[in-house]
Structure formats: C-alpha cells, structure tokens
Amino acid sequence: MKVGVIGLGYWGPNLLRNFLSTDGVDRVSAADLNAQRLKVAAKKLPAANYTSHYAELLKSPEIDAVAIATPVSTHFKLAKEALENGKHVLLEKPMTASVAEAEDLISLADRKQLTLMVDHTFIYTGAVRKIQDLISSGELGDVHYFDSVRVNLGLFQHDVNVIWDLATHDLAIMDYLVAARPVSVAAFGVAHYNHVEDVAYVIVNFNNGTIAHFHVNWIAPVKIRQILIGGSKKMVVYDDLEPSEKVKIYDKGVNIKSKEGIYEALIQYRTGDMYSPKLDGTEALSQLTSHFVECIRDSKTPITDGKSGLNVVRILEAAQQSITHNGELITID
Amino acid sequence: MKVGVIGLGYWGPNLLRNFLSTDGVDRVSAADLNAQRLKVAAKKLPAANYTSHYAELLKSPEIDAVAIATPVSTHFKLAKEALENGKHVLLEKPMTASVAEAEDLISLADRKQLTLMVDHTFIYTGAVRKIQDLISSGELGDVHYFDSVRVNLGLFQHDVNVIWDLATHDLAIMDYLVAARPVSVAAFGVAHYNHVEDVAYVIVNFNNGTIAHFHVNWIAPVKIRQILIGGSKKMVVYDDLEPSEKVKIYDKGVNIKSKEGIYEALIQYRTGDMYSPKLDGTEALSQLTSHFVECIRDSKTPITDGKSGLNVVRILEAAQQSITHNGELITID
Amino acid sequence: MKVGVIGLGYWGPNLLRNFLSTDGVDRVSAADLNAQRLKVAAKKLPAANYTSHYAELLKSPEIDAVAIATPVSTHFKLAKEALENGKHVLLEKPMTASVAEAEDLISLADRKQLTLMVDHTFIYTGAVRKIQDLISSGELGDVHYFDSVRVNLGLFQHDVNVIWDLATHDLAIMDYLVAARPVSVAAFGVAHYNHVEDVAYVIVNFNNGTIAHFHVNWIAPVKIRQILIGGSKKMVVYDDLEPSEKVKIYDKGVNIKSKEGIYEALIQYRTGDMYSPKLDGTEALSQLTSHFVECIRDSKTPITDGKSGLNVVRILEAAQQSITHNGELITID
Amino acid sequence: MKVGVIGLGYWGPNLLRNFLSTDGVDRVSAADLNAQRLKVAAKKLPAANYTSHYAELLKSPEIDAVAIATPVSTHFKLAKEALENGKHVLLEKPMTASVAEAEDLISLADRKQLTLMVDHTFIYTGAVRKIQDLISSGELGDVHYFDSVRVNLGLFQHDVNVIWDLATHDLAIMDYLVAARPVSVAAFGVAHYNHVEDVAYVIVNFNNGTIAHFHVNWIAPVKIRQILIGGSKKMVVYDDLEPSEKVKIYDKGVNIKSKEGIYEALIQYRTGDMYSPKLDGTEALSQLTSHFVECIRDSKTPITDGKSGLNVVRILEAAQQSITHNGELITID
After folding, report:
1. What is the distance between the alpha carbons of residues B236 and C225, in angstroms, rounded to a whole number?
2. Closest CA to A101 of A66, A64, A74, A71
3. Sign of torsion over alpha carbons D32, D37, D38, D44
4. Could you tell me which chain C residue has the CA closest to the CA of A276?
5. Candidate from D186, D217, D254 with C-beta closest to C193
C-alpha cells in the first residue's frame, strides 16, 4: 500500500513518521506548499518522497490512500477530490468545518466503497481504551456525567476558536465512551485577545439524562488535562498529565433506599478501594495508522469512522451556533 | 455585648465556639429545638447558656445580636423577627431563599439602623484576602475569567440542590473579588438520586465581558477545591486543599501586537516567575465574629453585608430559574 | 476501670480525651505540675478530675492504670513507681531514655503481672495495619528495604535530638512491619542551631539482608511523611499526608532468570496495576486506649508491649552512640 | 572543528545529535563496534559519518576533539590515547573508574594543553544554574545540608552499582553547588538481585559541617528526583519531575536568640513567601556541547573540567570502599 500525507504543519510530520513504520505500507509520499517545511521534514525523515504539489498525491494512480493534515477549512475539498479519485482517506480532526460537509464525505465514501477514517488520536491511547473496557463491561454502571477540563497557556489558533481546537479531543473521547445519544448543546465563551473565543464552556445533554461538560481555555496559568466520569457503580479520574497512573478507578458511589411511606429517600455513600490499571503504552498514532491500513485491507469499518467524525462536528457546529446566540440551547436531531 | 446563636446543626457550633472567644462578647446563648444537639454542645462548650426555645433569644432584652444558622428556608422569618426586636443579625449563607426576602431584610435593617451581616466565611480567609489585595492593587490587571470547581462525594442536602449548597461559597468569593456587574446567568444540572440536582454548572456573564463559571458536584470521586483567575497581567490558582501553598500567582500572559494593515494580530506568550505568598493563618470564622462585633460597636458596614448576601442570592435565584427553563439565559437587573 | 493521665503537655490531652470516651473506663484523672495547663484542660475536658500532684495518681488505690506523657527522661522513674504501686502503665514514646531502663520496666511489669504498653500510635492507624496485613499475608513477598522520610520545619526539642523526636515513629512502624532481626545501626547528624542534631540519617541492617533507612529533619522547607517498602513481589508507598489514598500498592518487581553457563543473570522488570485500599479511618489513639483497657481486662499482651518499646529504644540508643562516634556501625545483640 | 563521538549506546546518540547542531562544528564522525547501533544511528542522523573502527577517530588528523560515551571501564584507555594524539576530550560521566585514572588524565591534558571536560549534564540545566546563582549571590545563606533522592524501577547496570550509575548525577550537582570541601564519606547498600548494589545510601561530610546525603535505588515503585537544600537564609526544593516548576525557593528558616545567662537558646521559625523562578529551557546537552567547543576555541577552563570529574570519582571510590567495609567512614584527602 502506498500512502500520501498532505500537510506538514504541526501534526502532519507525526502521521508521516508513523506511516513510515507501519506494516503493509510500502511507500510514503508527503506534500506541503511550504518549501521550508518540506526541507525540515526531508532532513528528519529522509525515507519519504516529498513534493510541493499536493494535487499529485490526490491524482497519482500510485497512491492508494491519503492522510489529510491541513487546516480544517480545506478538509472537505481535499477529501472529496481524494475519494473521487478512488483513494481511501484519513482526515485530521475535526473532520470538516460543517455537518453538511461531513455528511457529503460519508455518503461519497460509501458510494465509492472506500475507507473514510478520522484521526481522533486519543481513542487509540491505552488510557481511553481501558476506560472503554470498564464501561462496556458494565464495571462503571450507567454513566451519570462526563466532565472534561483541557486548559493551558496557548497556542492560539487564528482560524478556529478554542472549542474547535481543544474540545474536539474531548468530544471525540465522549463520543467513543458515552453510548447515549446527545440531544442538545449549549456553549459560552469569550474572546479576549482576538476575534475567536479563547475561554469556553460547552454543555451536552443526552437522551438518557447523562450530562457532559467541557472547559477549554487557551489563557490558563497551568496545564490541566482531566476527565471525571461518574458511573452509578464506579467513578473514573483520567489525568493525561500523570506520567504513570493516568487512569484511576474509584469504587465509590451512592446507595439509595426508598423508605416506604416516607417522603425522603435515604442516601448512603459507599467508598472502597481505588485502583490504577496498567495501560498499554504503545504510541496511539502508531495504533491508528496500523488500524487505518488494516481497515482498508480487510474492508472493515474503522473505530473512528466518518460517523464518529460527524458526531463530533455536529456538536462543534451546535456549540458555535449556541455561542453566537448567547448560550441558547441548540437541539440536535 | 451579648450574642445568641440559633441553630446548632453543622455550622452553628462553630459560630458558638468563636463567639465564646471573641473580644467584646460577654455572654453567649444558644438555642436549638433538638435536645440531643443541645446536650452535645453543652458538653463541648460548657461556657454558653442553652435553651430549646429560640424565641427567647429573639425577644430577650438581654441579647444584643443573634447569629442564625438554621435551614435557609427559615432565615427570613427569624432574621425579620430579630431585627424587629432591635437585634443585630448575622445570617448563615445563603442569606435567604429569595431575592425578595433579602431585599426586605436589608431595608428593615436600614430603617432600624441595625447591623445585618452574612456569614460568607471564605471572605475572611487569608487566601481570599490576599487575592483581593492582588486584584485591587492592579497586580493581576483586568479579570478575564473566574473559574471555580468544588466537587466531592457527599453530603447531599434534602432541601436545596448542589448549587445552593456548594456554589454559594464560590459566588460569595466571586462577588468579593470581581468588581464588574453580573448581567446574566445560565445553569445546567442533573438530579441522579433525588429530586434535587447533584451535579451542576453555572455561567455568570458580566457587563465588561468577564465570564465566571462554577462546577459543583456531590457525586465526584475526588475532592477538588480549585479556582482559576485569569488576569490581563497575571493569573492566580487558588487550591484550598493545598496545606501550605493555597495561592499561586503566575506571571504569565499574552502580549498582542496589532500589525497595521495586516488582518491578524500577532500574539505572544509571556511566562515569568510563579510565587506563593505567605497567608494569614488565623481562623476565618474568628475574623468574622470579631468583625461582626466591631461593625456593631463602631456602626461600620460589614465587608459581607446584606448587599453581598443579596448579590449571591440573586445569582442563585437566577441559576434556579435557568435550570427550570433548560439553561435559558436569565438576565439580572 | 479508673485511669490517671500524667503530663498535659502536647500529647497528654489527646490521651485524656480518648480515655474519657473509652468503653470500660469509669473515671479519668489527670495531673500536671503546670497550673495553666490544668486550667486549659479543665476548660476543654470538664469531665475529668485534675490535680497538680501527680504522686496522688501513682499512689491512689482508686487508680487502676496510668498513662505517662511526660518528658522521656522522667518515664522510667514514674513508670517504676506506678508499677510498684500495682498500676498498669501506658508509656508515651519513646518508652525510656535507655535500654537498661526499658529492660527494668519490662521485668518489673512481668513480676507484678501488670500490663506495660507503649504508645506507638501509628501502629493503630488503618494505614499501618493494612500494610501489616499485606506483609503477613505474603502479598509483598520478602521485604527488601524500608525507607522512611519524616521532615518539616520545627518543632525543635531541647532535650532530645531529631532522631529521638521523629525517627521514633518510623522505628516503631519498622519494628511492627519488618519481621527480621536488626543487627547493626549507623547514624549521621548535624546540629546547626543548638546542641542537638536537627538533621539526621539512620541506617539499620537486618540479619536477613533487609536494609532500613530513616531521614529525619527539623529544618526542611516542606513537610514529607513518606515510607517506601520494597518487597520481592510488590512494593508499597505510604504517604501519610495524602488525605485519602495514604497507601498505594504497586504490582511491580524484578524477575531474574539465571542463564546457565552464562555469567550474567537476565533481569526483567514487571509492572502491573496499582491499587490503594480503603483504610479504617478510626482515630488511632482511640483504638490504642481501647486496646490498653482490653489487654488489662483480659490479661492479653499488647500489640505495642514493653518489648516493642525496648526494640525502638535499643535502636535509638545505638543511633546515638553511632553519631557520637562519627557514624561507626554499632552492633545490636 | 571536527568532532568524533565514540560509543553509540544509550547516551552517545544524544551527544552526536547535539554536536551536529553546535555552532563551530563542521563535521561529526561516530564510532561503535556494534553494526546494528551504527545502522540505527545512521538512519536517524544521516548527517554524520560512521565507522566501526573507533581507533580511526582517535588517530585521524582530521579529528580535533572526541567525545567518549563508552562503558566507564574503558574511559581511561580511550581518553589517554585521544589526549596523546593531541585531541581534546569530552568524557561521559563518571569520568573514570578510579581516582588514579582521573588524576593521570588531568595531568596529561595539562601537559598537552588540551581541553578535558566531563559530561556532567545536569550542571548545564536551567534549574541547577539558577540554584547556583541563588547560592553564589548569598540568597540562600550558608548551605546546611544537601539531600538528594534519585529512585525508580530499573535500569540495572551489570558493570557498576546503583551509586556509580545514579548518584554520579547528584554528586556532580553537589560538587557544583556546595563550595565547602568534602572530608569523609560513608555508604551503605544491598544487592538483592545481582552482584552489584541496587539500593544504596551515601553520606558526605564537609569541612564546614555541611552534610550531604544521597538515596539511590533501582527497585523503587515510584520515580523520585528530588533535592532539598537547606540554607541558613532560604531553602530550596528541586524536583526534576515537575514539568514547569522544578525549583522552589522557600523563605523559611530559624532565628536563634541567645538568651544571656540562660542555658537554652530561644528558637523561632520564620516563614515567608515561596517562589519558583522561570528557568532557561534550553536543552542542557546543547549548552554543554557549545561550551565544550567554546572552551577549546578560547582555551578556557570548562565549568565541568577534569577537576570536577575527579571530585565526583573520588567520592564514588570512597563510597565503594565504605560499602566494602560495612559503612566505615572513609576520609578524603
């Protein structure tokens, strides 16, 4: 299989490096409009081919699949052309700039019977996979809430706000972990330095009463990457900055006894052991590129397929709309 | 001065203990309807007088001032009676169950020329006083955001939800620290175990663009007490669980250069030293009871007067209304 | 049973408070030479009887047992008199100022068939009891090392150095947890401000190769209370300052394969889950006073009997001797 | 200038990478006996020349300086040959396997007027440089103690024990920071899995009463990299695992008032602010390679010259001797 990587900005070189060492990938080509970036990449990763004409990668019959790591505003156009030329596509997150674009790509890929995958990298970490195991095995019970904080100083983006930049990660994790269906979104944010929000909060309500919340911030004094998940049986703290104990599972909860004939229920707390499972330490992106190649080869549906990309974009779009309308609750179909 | 404490539940005994050692207080009486509570208190604090008839304290010409630490639904009735009988009043937080009640008490105290104070304890901690110094001296610059997280497992209240219980603390701190005027409130919450919300998020928008946010949760696996304050010059992390370095001030920020004739502004990050100031370690409640006595004696306006109590109740009421209306943005006059 | 507490300095009032609520204790009397201390205690704990004549407690036929919480230099004299008068004795740590004194008290108590117990409070914490369970059940395997750090700023003692003050706690824990027999001790320390060492390090070697180490320091910028225990199967971190996860058990270790005919062994690391067990949160001192009363009543040997007190004093004495001789290794019989 | 790097094991490739981007270095060659290592390095760093014959680098008139990153037992032989061939030498830490070897190299370099430098990398970190500033400016006052903990699980070395492996880093830092002269060393250690110690403690006494202590451990459940430095005016905590606040300076101390005619001195604690200075984040090794090149060019004495290397080896040798003699205090000339 021959893979082309388009875009060598912040993330593209990581995709390139991983494709270069993915089993089943024979040759990797990379394109960027910027000569300097090509030069730097060529020095670090001399095994790839380089070009400043990305169109070559989209058209060349030599290329089986392309990974697109360009600004989000260009995703749709590039992915569409790639699919039309019969190439499998891996899209950098967020998948597209709108729900409509995402839906178009999904149906195009469907029609062409091509693999369309989104680079929701965190889904391929040992931490998130482990939490998914806990939820799907029923160990956590029902998910009561999903609360995420992703804050630090910088890096400002010029074209998208802090929600599109940072919350995308956590929305992808939420989409993977929470089985219920999101029904409405509200978002609040302020732009202090530029025309895009640098501090924001997003609420997602689910059909079963689960609530999710996202705090994203580019102007925070400290770096925080923390997700709390409250289950009816156990609770999880996922701190991505912890070097070795990223996931902690607390055997804590609330027992409730309805007292017949009495108005108030009797609430009791339950506190047991905490444990922090050993996690698979393989680089997430290397799992992801292998999975992409495997899905193409075996015609399997990727874990982070177009549908997951769409789910995330749908909430981003609703959040954007809510911010524009002063936090109005936006219903999701 | 002679002080009466009404209500010996969770907080009342702390007020009692502090009044017993406050300069200028000659005698302290305490009332509770519950005989067991009176017995326990009398054993621990034998220096006070005890009664099961709180009305005695409200009426007795021997009593100059009362501290009311009963459930919030009774605050208005008791405080009103006390003021009408010419007694100065210290009210446990939140001040009242509604804005109307708080306004009534304020004008009554005004008319009677009596001191009306609210027990916003945190305002009297060394940590919050120090942050106030930093803000009022201009060291932080303009406050861009105020973000608070107060979560833990328990203790459920039966009569009020998690916002009235936990966010009250942080709203009082916000009211004290943020000089701007709140203009609107939105809140979201879910009740998983009872008829009151146990997880909630509150947004407060200010007239100058400052945004405040509150995450409160009774069913969290870990205890977090953290406030982030982003200033235009410096930023603060206030972690109340840190044993010795509760307040950290970060010399971090964003410099922006407008480039004439060019669309995008140039954003640069600034990172300097962090420092953690030594804090006054005196018990906050002892500062508060002394301040109450001093305000009565010198006819001074308390730092946490009826007005601050009202400010907090106004946001609580708006938050309640917003939750009832699915997160609708509630305007504050 | 009637109990007398002698000495109301730092620790005595805690013993007093606990004996007042211990089942089986009918009356508690307390003595101190200092009138101010008596006054303060009488105000806080009015249920006890107070006297400035400690001899009364040692002699009175009304008293069944005494708890001695005076400076260590007086322990022997007071305990001896109490035992001779037929009273059971609880001695504050360290048990005595010398091995000879400890041995004397043990044989006297033996002869008189009286209970002699030492207040090694930490042995009665949920944390240390849990670690003991792990060791005695074989879950940790053989103990390879026991490493303790107990440092902070202050409080200087005038009569004893930092080893007698702080390391006593950790030596008692070690004595309880490590089954092997200590064979030699070395100690190093420096006195920066006074005639007693304020920074010190103690090494204890055991008959089976286990090594124990103690870092104690009165002039440290931060407070640390951390014990690492390396077992052949699992390892423990016990951090007494952690509010809720004081004990963490790591499924980590080293697997070694001897390669026949090859000089070097093959070493492999094993890393699994970590867990933090729920601990019994009962106040240790309350467990201890109950245990004391129970041992007297049922003629049982206390967990922290005279022998454990002696074990600790033996190492303290050897450490002192080592410091005097520039760290010379002192053999323990 | 042309530089040769000998040894491409764990550390050599880092030296190689940094020399490749050091100003003033025209060409870098590298040698290793292992073909696989050469292959891996050549793939990652194609800009260097590679050979399996290290002797070429030691002899070639084309090479001006060599960096030796081979096992410590070979340092002396290789460095000697390099110096004899007129090449400047950078030696990996520890400098040599014995004091005698280090002294030989120093006098040889002296005679040949060649630069002899030791790769004590930590000395070139922003953290250690900042602490040095604090000490040399007098801000900390006199250094009372230097306490270091460097523990983790693995990596066992086969040829040297945990002191030679891990304590070398901290001894180099101590040598750089503590101005006083070490006068004696004691060390204790146990070998649990192999013929070399995997847990060890080292004490260093100084001529002015300063005490230094080192805890090194290959079989610890957690990773700790912490140095406490107690000064008479301020105290430092240097935690190398902290992502952004590695150095914290505490305005804490002890004030002592001699009370005339009274036996005991009056001790008071002083506690003020803490601050964490911004540190230079440049990669230490890049600073080091630049410094090496600069010292050669300008005939300057390196910060970490042969003498500092010798100082460290002298303590390592004494520690080894002490361990062999059961912790005997070894005097240093």
Report:
1. 28
2. A74
3. negative
4. C274
5. D254
